């Protein structure tokens, strides 16, 4: 496994397993399978409603001989619990569901509501040793700069939509300037634009004997971006994990770079209608 050293000194696997849209009843089996394959970074969130399944899988893995310190567990704080006191309570609730003594990474899930109160709570929990690293998710350049310049605590990670059709290079340069690790969600664009049959990606895959999915993950990792692909099938988990035995050539990287449209395939976090919709999600 390849690791990134975060700006707080902690090490984070560059490849992990995400459980977005994995049903709660299925989460335990999926995470157990992922850990058996070799994944050690597991990404969940309060709003995914599957923290208990993740926690049960972690408990099983530890009982089976996996050391807790080998695992890197992430969860996220939802908008409705932003604010100093609410964040502390939400963190305790998540930890109870996960069954953990400490958390490896806690993220503010969306850049709305009282993010500064939440950030104070998270900074306090980090000082107390209950969280090893703290970060954010879906913070665009203006929001991340504002937080960095006014909070006194630089996030370790920013998790964002990133895939061949929306590459976020300008935003990555902002993050690099603060030493913030970039983590990708929707690395496969959730299958949009027929991504797995894209001629450029398929052609590169044929060159290396790899799938389009493996090429995408390798491309992100070579950009220094953390990836957390999701699959409920262990065969696909194994395939997604098998990306450390080849390196994309510069011309391959350039060909993929040319696929960038500069536009989200999901939603813009500055769109008033989406801001309202996300704030009303409970």
UniProtKB/TrEMBL annotation:
Q: Per its record, how is this protein called by name? A: 2,5-diketo-D-gluconic acid reductase
The segment(s) forming the NADP-dependent oxidoreductase domain are 21-260
Q: Lineage of the source organism?
A: Bacteria, Pseudomonadati, Campylobacterota, Epsilonproteobacteria, Campylobacterales
Q: Which SUPFAM superfamilies match?
A: NAD(P)-linked oxidoreductase
Note the site residues: Lowers pKa of active site Tyr. Answer: 76
Annotated substrate binding sites = 109
Q: Reply yes or no: does the keyword Protein biosynthesis apply.
A: no
PANTHER family on file: 2,5-DIKETO-D-GLUCONIC ACID REDUCTASE, NADP-DEPENDENT OXIDOREDUCTASE DOMAIN-CONTAINING PROTEIN
Which residues does UniProt mark as catalytic?
Answer: 48
Natural source organism: Campylobacter concisus
Among the GO molecular function terms of this UniProt record, one is: oxidoreductase activity, acting on the CH-OH group of donors, NAD or NADP as acceptor
UniProt keyword DNA damage present: no
């Amino acid at each position: 496994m390849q690791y990134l050293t975060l700006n707080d000194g902690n090490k984070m696997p560059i490849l992990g397993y995400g459980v977005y849209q994995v049903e709660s009843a299925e989460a335990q089996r999926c995470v157990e399978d992922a850990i058996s394959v070799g994944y050690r970074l597991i990404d969940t969130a309060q709003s995914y409603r599957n923290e208990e399944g993740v926690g049960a899988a972690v408990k099983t893995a530890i009982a089976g001989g996996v050391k807790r310190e080998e695992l890197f567990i992430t969860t996220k704080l939802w908008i409705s619990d932003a604010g100093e006191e609410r964040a502390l309570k939400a963190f305790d609730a998540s930890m109870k569901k996960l069954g953990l003594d400490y958390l490896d990474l806690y993220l503010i899930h969306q850049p709305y509501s009282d993010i500064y109160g939440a950030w104070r709570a998270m900074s306090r929990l980090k000082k107390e040793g209950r969280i090893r690293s703290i970060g954010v998710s879906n913070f665009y350049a203006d929001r991340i700069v504002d937080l960095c310049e006014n909070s006194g605590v630089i996030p370790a990670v920013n998790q964002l939509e990133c895939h061949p059709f929306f590459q976020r290079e300008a935003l990555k340069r902002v993050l690099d300037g603060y030493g913030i690790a970039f983590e990708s969600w929707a690395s496969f664009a959730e299958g949009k634009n027929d991504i797995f049959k894209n001629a450029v990606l398929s052609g590169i895959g044929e060159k290396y004997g790899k799938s389009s999915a493996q090429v995408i993950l390798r491309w992100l990792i070579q950009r220094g971006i953390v990836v957390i692909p999701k699959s409920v099938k262990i065969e696909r988990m194994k395939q997604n994990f098998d990306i450390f035995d080849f390196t994309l050539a510069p011309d391959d990287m350039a060909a993929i770079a040319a696929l960038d449209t500069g536009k989200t395939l999901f939603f813009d976090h500055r769109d008033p209608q989406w801001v309202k919709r996300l704030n009303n999600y409970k």
